[in-house]
Amino acid sequence: MNAHDPLVRFVNIQKSYDGETLIVKDLNLSVAKGEFLTMLGPSGSGKTTCLMMLAGFEPATHGEIYLEDQPINRVPPHKRGIGMVFQNYALFPHMTVAENLAFPLDVRGMSKSEKMQRVKRALDMVQLGEFGDRRPVQLSGGQQQRVAVARSLVFDPALVLMDEPLGALDKNLREQMQYEIKSIHENLGITVVYVTHDQSEALTLSNRIAVFDDGVIQQCAPPDMLYEEPENAFVANFIGENNRLMGTVAEDNGNTVKVNVNNGHVVEAKKVKVEGVGSPSTLSLRPERVVVAPEPASLPNIFLAKTEELIYLGDHIRTRFSVCGTDDFVVKIPNSSVHVCLSEGDEVNVGWKVEDCRALDA
Amino acid sequence: MAGLVFTDQSRLPPSPFLNNVSTMPTASANPAGPILTVDGTPLKTSLERSLKLSKLRAVGLVFPPLVFLIFLFVIPIGSLLTRSVDDSLSNKVLPRTLAAFERWDKTSEPDEAMFEALYLDMKAAEKLDLSKLGTRMNYEKSGWRSLVKITTRGLKRIEGPPYKPAMLKLNKRWGDIAFWQSLGAMKDPVTFGYYLNAVDLKYDGNKNVMRVNKHRRIYQLLWWRTLLVSTIVTIGCLILAYPVAHLLATLPLRISNLLMICVLMPFWTSLLVRIVAWMIMLQQNGVINDSLVSLGLLHDDNRLEMMYNFTGTVIVMIQILLPFMILPIYSVMKTIPPSYMKAAQNLGATPALAFLKVYLPQTIPGVGAGCILVFIVAIGYYITPELVGGKDGRLIGNLIAHHMQHSLNWGLAAAMGATLLAAILILYWVYDKLIGVDNMKMG
Hints:
Strand content of chain A: 35-45%
CATH class of the largest domain in chain A: Alpha Beta
Oligomer: heterodimer
Largest sheet of chain B: 2 strands, antiparallel
Shape of chain A: elongated
Shape of chain B: flat
Number of domains of chain A: 2
CATH topology of the largest domain in chain B: MetI-like fold
Mean pLDDT of chain A: 89
Structural class of chain B: mainly alpha
Low-confidence stretches of chain B: 1-29
Strand order of the largest sheet of chain B: 1-2
Helix content of chain A: 10-25%
CATH superfamily of the largest domain in chain B: MetI-like
Number of helices of chain B: 20
Number of helices of chain A: 8
Strand order of the largest sheet of chain A: 6-7-8-3-9-10
Mean pLDDT of chain B: 86
Order of helices and strands of chain A: EEEHEEEHHHEHEHEEHHEEEEEEEEEE
Structural class of chain A: alpha+beta
Distance between the termini of chain B: 55 Å
Low-confidence stretches of chain A: none
Largest sheet of chain A: 6 strands, mixed
Order of helices and strands of chain B: HHHHHHHHHHEEHHHHHHHHHH
Number of domains of chain B: 2
Radius of gyration of chain B: 35 Å
Number of strands of chain A: 20
CATH architecture of the largest domain in chain B: Orthogonal Bundle
Radius of gyration of chain A: 25 Å
Distance between the termini of chain A: 43 Å
């Protein structure tokens, strides 16, 4: 087997709790060996359910999950050998940190010397070598988080699941822990399936992100692809900031389309997911790709915009325009030495390239 | 922000915070002296003043229950404990007799001087005191009560010395040296005699501890039985309560609320009604026996005796005390997130091992609290053994009630009550050493 063989495969997985609604609708997904795959989505989108099915705590209603090509639907959780970091860490409060780490080794009947050696190695890996005798409650949130990571790795699983592990930490700590998790993943070469609803976390950590909504994977792609080439309106909106222009397709030119935006303007856009002339479409445009006051005729799409609001954010000025019938058109003007100076109510031209404006489903 | 043009950073106004730092009042300017507030009063005085009102309010809230506790709990318990060691009556009524007793050699026949002292004491004493004294003396040797009563009645017929023959004439038992010897057990105003009585021991005339006659030994047996019943009831409650508490803590709210009502229902029913219901169930022609017989599992001549004995006491007490076990365990289980069991299994433990190593240890505070609660209530239980206990099911509580209500030996009842209290305190201490009282969660 080489590195690109799938370690985990979900095949036609469906899940329902009440027999009336599907939480997960026909999921097909492979996770390659050594990959860091993130399941990203709003709450209730089915991502945690998928993780619980993989860990063995929820049975799949239909379909099969394979781990190293073995079907595991009937394997109980304790025989799957998958590491897991729980949302609130689930560190056993009546055991010390070292006892927590030794627990998976104890149940595997490991010798005392090897156990001590492994516990020490795991604690050193998360820089908590001195904390073995403490109880979890005596540790800070970040330290508990590290212990939870160490415990999920101490028995050398090939696959580690993480269920919103950084959700309880404050912002600074969360960013620091992101880098630690990333470096652990890279150093150990393990496979990680990570669940979060925080898109920046997903973008920072992952090799590949599966965006969930309504029990369906909307798009599964590397972070840059996901951001720059979203395949549908949900992904475009969910990942990063996004300007939306609603309209109907007026003209189909193969790779590009012309879209009649609601108030009569015609915008030329890249054709990504539209059904043909006459169908409704959402145009998606990243705020940083909009050019303010472009040279006349230098861009195919140039429209007059009215400045509605300016928010000073240090490195850039977030500017809200009303243009093409929407008053929620955001542009990030970088705070460079030669940038356009606007005040509220000013009218100015804004423009963008055809390939930066993606015509998606409505 | 409206209308601001962002071009040059230097045009932003300077931060207002930087300027103010030097003009702020520095409370801790003088590290040696007391810290003062801005207007010069010491910080401590100022703090006390500001907290005074809330302290007063706290005292006001605590005051009524405190008064209630002192008058209706602390003082009665104190008087109970005093009564359990108090033996001043004999000294008050028979001072001359006891003085003469000290001079006596305890073996020869009492002389005229002792009889004279006795006569003078009894002549001077109030009638009521004499009757109480007779009862008290009867605890040491039976026969005293009637002897004192007869003598009290006959005192006016004695006209003068010599007293010895006159007294002997009143009742010849005055010649029995054993009565005189038993005075030795009550000569001190403070006695531990009641505590000895509570465990089938007594003082002899020389204040040596000895066992009571074989046919009068009952208390030790009852103490052991009380401990045994309490232990069985505690274990029985634990076995029945643990799974129920687990269900209560893990089932969906709608179902667990219903279950909780079922658990609490007995609390809302009169204790007496519940016990009578059990009597209907357990008696020889009761529901259980009838069902077993009609199912053919039991022969009609062989009906089980489940009431008016040890079994009945245990069964009914388990049912009555079950909620005291369920509720503390439930309250602890409620706080254990299901993710612990999941984590344990994820780490490779079988469900059984995960329960033993991860779940069970975390429920110990609730189990401990439940056990101690049930044991403490069971050890002093009275009403159930009284109604369904019969002869073999009587516990120490019933004896205390007996001595309070019937024999009126309050000293002994108080001593037994105090012993129960001590047993509970020892239990509490052991619990603290084993599990730690700080961990206890009552619900």
